[in-house]
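Q: For a teaching handout, I want to show students what a protein-ligand complex looks like in token form. Below are the inputs, and the small molecule is nicotinamide-adenine-dinucleotide. Please produce the holo structure.
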Amino acid sequence: MTASELINPATEELLRTVEQTSIAGVDDAVARAKVAQRDWARLAPGDRAAALRSFAAAVDAHVDELAALEVANSGHPIGNATWEAGHVRDVLQFYSATPERLSGKQIPVAGGLDITFNEPLGVIGVITPWNFPMPIAVWGFAPALAAGNAVLVKPAEWTPLTTIRIGELAVEAGLPPDLFQVLPGKGSVVGERFVTHPDVRKIVFTGSTEVGTRVMAGAAAQVKRVTLELGGKSANIVFDDCDLEKAAATAPYGVFDNAGQDCCARSRILVQRNVYDRFMELLEPAVKGVAVGDPASKDTEMGPLVSKSHWQSVASYVPGDAPVAFRGDAPSGPGYWFPPTVLTPERSDRTVREEIFGPVVAVLPFDDEADAIALANDTPYGLSGSIWTDDLSRAVRVSRAVEAGNLSVNSHSSVRYNTPFGGFKQSGLGRELGPDAPLSFTETKNVFYAIGDA
Ligand code: NAD
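A: Here is the structure, written as tokens, with nicotinamide-adenine-dinucleotide included.
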């Protein structure tokens, strides 16, 4: 085993070292998970439901501890981190109802009885990114466990601590230790072994489109199931008939939340040309008002970027001659701080086309509804977006025309555990959350029982 060093992104101090799982360690974990899964699937549905509720209760009792860990490891503001830990509890609670409700169908046929069963897949591999370690892990493991599977989670190299703790809480809550295992390690080792191991029957991957494409290609060799949640370059479309004050006041929070390290970040603000100047006047104080600072402080709205190398990547999008309209504040001194930054580039600029994954937003004018839709869709991504208009017909037309999986009208809401989440085009494949997520961790088995004459 090798160890990796974790750095607190707000202080640049060494936080902890974490052992990395080897290929042999993954193989051993898969073998144990396979055995545990059979026992788990055989349990009475009510007993599986009770076990998931106990797991949720254990998380609930440790929300503050998990939140503090995320502040230290990822630099998330304490308010956000507390919500994220509570979200783990809520998602577990939501899917604890699944074991007793995952019913198949009885289909009328001649000569017998036809029944479908939702059979678990077996062992599931969940690979998570560093931007939302807790929510993204639970979106995979909760419905997968609820549908009768075993789960192995590989957290991102930089941010494994909360996932490791959640794995311990599962065992403390009474889940079989081999059923749900957290395997910290490298993507090129643990992640790739999930893809190549024949007993891992499905991969839930959240991360970059580049690595997701590779995971999908590897999975194809075994016709392995995949759910992919990938990158985004979402549009916030502001029409001239909306509440412009509200659109401008909320726009920073639609992109700078989690320091812009959010797959749903509305990183392109498209503004109707006749209200563009007024919108920019209103946006400036809103951007300068974002409270950037110590993530442990309750008043902080935006913390640092996650790592030095990520800071360098974000900074490369704002060179000295960048078309900066205005910027917010950021602390100086140690820490990977980057101020909220508003650019006014040309439509062809790489800041308009590429996912920056930091607190940098491009504002572009558009002429009319058709131009807005064309501009919003001019990207290989299709994850989320917002539409600001007080015209109901326009809201319906535009929300149907924008090619994205998660849209909100007159708000920036993307994620609720009881509604489906996922991307169009190269933003992903499949859907997480919502009532149907457990079905994506099952195979439908159809059985015909011939009935003889009496
Ligand atoms: P990444 O693709 O670099 O890594 C994601 C995970 O994959 C990590 O755990 C990494 O170790 C692992 N990995 C790396 N190489 C691998 C390989 N060859 N095989 C298997 N696993 C491998 O992404 P990141 O930088 O951690 O996260 C940022 C990206 O994630 C952004 O593009 C963002 O948009 C995306 N994201 C998408 C969603 C969504 O729901 N659509 C949510 C959050 C983040």
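A: Two things your students might notice: The pocket of nicotinamide-adenine-dinucleotide is lined by residues 127-132, 136, 154, 156-157, 187-188, 191-192, 195, 206-208, 211, 214-215, 229-232, 263, 355, 357, 383, 423, 427-428 (CB under 6 Å). The chain has two domains: 3-230+423-449, 235-409.
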